[in-house]
Write a structure and sequence with these properties.
heterodimer; A: 303 residues; mainly alpha; B: mainly alpha; 14 helices; 2 strands; 2% strand
């Protein structure tokens, strides 16, 4: 009995975490480069819409993911050029893009119903038979397995490559990076575009492979949970991944506890990610965990 | 966030030539005039593009831009009642925008108005529904409680910033979602704020309706022009904020803190008091807007109560570029979009179109100042290089 409940909740946690994890990988890179990217919500919502729209019209789910990535990167393109070419305030641009994408997608979906499609999970033999963790980790739609490669790849790119070093340097000390010949705003734009791709994929995964339809405002603040996860993780990749899994778990608990006959305050569980991020910041803030130039626009000669 | 204010401040003087320019005076004056003309044209072009994109979007989705414009006009400006509706929609936006202007001037970027507004409204609803007495006193107490609630919610961010150094943008953003859940809990828990049980009906997740005595008075009659008296409060606040920011020692401290923290500190501005105070005050304005919304048009609190008023008030403040007086027409314009949007739905065009148009307009308003700043920096660099070459 307990084993079944645990499997149900863990499975729910992983399913709900996967879209967050994709987006969190992107948000992590963007924040390390110094963009506190709040349009990640817009990127996920746009990706969710693009993905669901293509999945329902063509029936090709993988193409849905690709279109989700393209939608995400288009939103990132606008944000990147406003914030890191024109040096417009990144929060103003991000908020406006969130409103824009919410408006556009809600407008386009209003009064329309998408053709349904079905998703079959890809069950990995043997591994999916492991008790408790087998089903959550090895019985998911195939794009979820991309994360097993993506997370280490992001780690290697950020920590072990030249571009990753540039990303970290423009996030920590853009003036020094500029003097040493790095095009600060270009690197920041690139990081933001990568965030757009991954957030778009995350959003598309959510609509195409998890919910299998699109509703107005379906991401409902999941982008902000991603931001909370990156903050909660103290701007480390493993912390962000852990944050996503924990917040997915809180979400799964909130959805499942009542059906399983437990009592837990669902409002408290929904606000858990935000409270956890706030608490983490309260304790990390003095330890200077965040990239030193986070959310500061770079203009040459403007210290 | 001080760089944002700097950009805004600089963009206002974008037309002026750089101080280092060794040009004779008459030529400089001419430059300034050309600069203003260029800026005006740039704004016009930018807004034209935004409207054109909106029209294109409408046309591409199979609707007629002309019909949309007609419907928006009918819903926002065509007759007295539509104009009253526009003013009613603009009132809370303006109040939110005024608070935002205060803390943005102090270099503090509060984006949590949506949460502060709904917490304010919730505190107002507590007083309105649970405190008994002469209705005009309770009405005033309701509005004060709303302002206090908003101030307290923003105050959390202020405390976190000056106690632990937590970034205000992040904490105000995260607290929005906590606020939503707090209100959802309050209106779904019997005995807290949920409506009284009526035998034979299911309890809705909303509070009881405010009694008529606690609803803000309206001027005018329904089919003709009619408007809630909240708008006079908002207008008075706009003038007070404008005078306070430009004519008082307190306003000067706030602007000084926003323009240069170090100078402010060394001239004796206590940062936590001025900065934290401005943040709490902006929360108080957002909360008051929630109170006005509660007593002026919604009359009860529910989960979707804030309905983007906080976000749009924030955007109005940004478009108004930190001017309390400019915030009045901008809020009216946003209010017209909101009331026109309500009317749009009846013509079969989804009302979300309004959000699209609004967002495009905000992007159009952001573009010119930053673009001019880029041009100015480039000109300065070229001039500096030329000077270096001469010497």
């Amino acid at each position: 009995m307990f084993v079944n409940d645990a499997t149900t909740i863990l499975d729910g946690a992983v399913i709900l975490s996967v879209p967050l994890l994709f987006a969190a990988c992107g948000e992590y890179v963007a924040e390390r480069a110094g963009t506190l990217n709040i349009s990640v919500e817009a990127m996920m919502l746009g990706g969710a819409f693009g993905g669901a729209f293509i999945a329902s019209t063509t029936g090709n789910l993988a193409l849905g993911l690709v279109v989700g990535a393209v939608t995400g990167v288009s939103i990132a393109f606008i944000h990147a050029n406003f914030s890191h070419r024109l040096s417009a305030n990144t929060f103003v641009v991000g908020l406006t893009l969130n409103a824009l994408v919410l408006g556009v997608t809600s407008y386009l979906i209003a009064g329309r119903t998408l053709n349904p499609w079905t998703v079959t999970p890809l069950s990995i033999p043997v591994l999916s038979g492991i008790p408790i963790i087998g089903q959550p980790l090895f019985d998911q739609p195939w794009p979820a397995y991309l994360l097993y490669g993506l997370v280490p790849a992001i780690y290697v790119v950020v920590q072990r490559t030249r571009w990753g070093l540039e990303v970290r340097s423009v996030g920590e000390n853009p003036q020094a990076a500029d003097v040493s010949g790095i095009d600060v705003n270009k690197v920041r734009r690139q990081a933001l575009l990568l965030c757009g791709v991954l957030s778009g994929v995350g959003g598309a995964y959510y609509s195409v492979y998890h919910v299998t339809t699109f509703n107005a405002n379906m991401t409902a603040g999941r982008g902000f949970i991603v931001i909370a996860a990156v903050i909660f993780g103290g701007w480390t990749l493993r912390g962000a991944v852990l944050g996503c899994l924990l917040f997915g778990l809180a979400d799964a608990l909130q959805l499942n506890v009542q059906a399983l006959g437990y009592q837990l305050n669902s409002e408290l569980l929904i606000s858990a990610p935000y409270l956890a991020a706030l608490l983490a910041m309260t304790f990390f803030a003095k330890r200077n965990r965040q990239p030193a130039a986070l959310a500061q626009p770079f203009v040459r000669g403007l210290a | 966030m001080s760089s944002f204010t700097e950009l805004v401040e600089k963009s206002v003087q974008a037309g002026e030539p750089a101080e280092m320019a060794p040009t004779p005076a008459p030529l400089a004056a001419e430059h300034r005039w050309l600069g203003w003309l260029g800026a005006l044209l740039l704004y016009l072009a930018s807004f034209t593009v935004a409207f054109a994109l909106s029209a294109l979007f409408v046309a591409l989705t199979g609707n007629s831009p002309r019909d949309v414009v007609t419907a928006m006009y009918d819903g926002s400006l065509a007759d007295g009642s539509a104009i009253g509706q526009t003013i009613d929609e603009a009132t809370p936006l303006l109040i939110v925008a005024l608070g935002t202007i205060i803390c943005t001037k102090a270099g503090i970027f509060n984006i949590g108005q949506e949460g502060q507004l709904i917490i304010g409204a919730m505190c107002g609803a507590f007083v309105a529904l649970d405190v008994h007495g002469p209705s005009w006193i309770i009405l005033i107490l309701t509005l004060l409680a709303a302002a206090a609630g908003g101030a307290a919610w923003a105050g959390i961010s202020a405390v976190l910033k000056y106690w632990r150094g937590v970034d205000v943008v992040i904490s105000t953003l995260l607290l929005i979602f906590v606020a939503f859940q707090l209100v959802t809990w309050a209106v779904t828990t019997p005995g807290v704020l949920q409506e009284n049980a009526v035998p034979g009906s299911v309890l809705s997740p909303e509070s009881n309706q405010l009694p008529p005595g606690l609803q803000l008075a309206r001027i005018g009659q329904y089919p003709d022009f009619n408007v809630g008296i909240g708008c006079f409060l908002a207008l008075a606040l706009a003038i007070v904020v404008h005078l306070a920011m430009t004519r008082t020692r307190w306003g000067f401290r706030i602007r000084l803190l926003g323009l240069n923290r170090d100078v402010a500190r060394s001239t004796g501005v206590r940062e936590w008091r001025t900065g934290g105070g401005s943040l709490a005050l902006s929360g108080a304005f957002a909360g008051l807007a929630g109170g006005v919304l509660l007593t002026g048009s919604v009359f009860r609190i529910q989960a979707g109560f804030s309905n983007n008023v906080g976000f749009q008030g924030l955007l109005a403040a940004l478009v108004a570029q930190g001017s309390a007086l400019l915030a009045i027409p901008v809020s009216l314009f946003f209010g017209a979009l909101r009331s026109g949007g309500g009317f749009l739905a009846s013509t079969g065009v989804p009302r979300y179109l309004v959000d699209v148009v609004q967002a495009l307009l905000v992007l159009a308003a952001i573009f010119p100042p930053v673009f001019l700043a880029v041009l100015r920096r480039r000109r300065e660099r070229v001039r500096a290089a030329a000077q270096a070459a001469v010497s």
